[in-house]
Predict the 3D structure of the following.
Amino acid sequence: MILKGKRLLGSLAMAFAAAASFTVAVPSGSAFAIDHVECRGGENFLKIWSHNGGQQSVDCYANAGRTNFGGWWVDRISTGNNDLIYYDANGDSVKIPRWTDITFPNLPPKVNSIEIL
């Protein structure tokens, strides 16, 4: 009985050591998160002019990732140094390449979320 217990403990110790070395050897992936940033001096930022219920807003974003845009109507987008996909209320996704400045004077899209690639 003591011999079986020693083998079991030895096997458990080896399994634990193997799992620990695997955990240390495999780095975690890079985490990306889109950031809402101040628009000052940021021609490289994604900049979006929008309106909703009588309110107007100008928002800037940096870094790759996706975020909720709340169903606001978009009047203008300047992508800066960012490739963008916006997801509208109709379920469509629209990709806009970097260094693009586009306006929507007559039929602004109602945007649910945005993603910087």
Observations:
- Confidence is low (pLDDT under 50) at residues 18-31.
- The radius of gyration is 24 Å.
- Helices lie at 2-25.
- Strands lie at 35-37, 46-52, 55-62, 65-78, 84-88, 93-96, 101-103, 110-116.
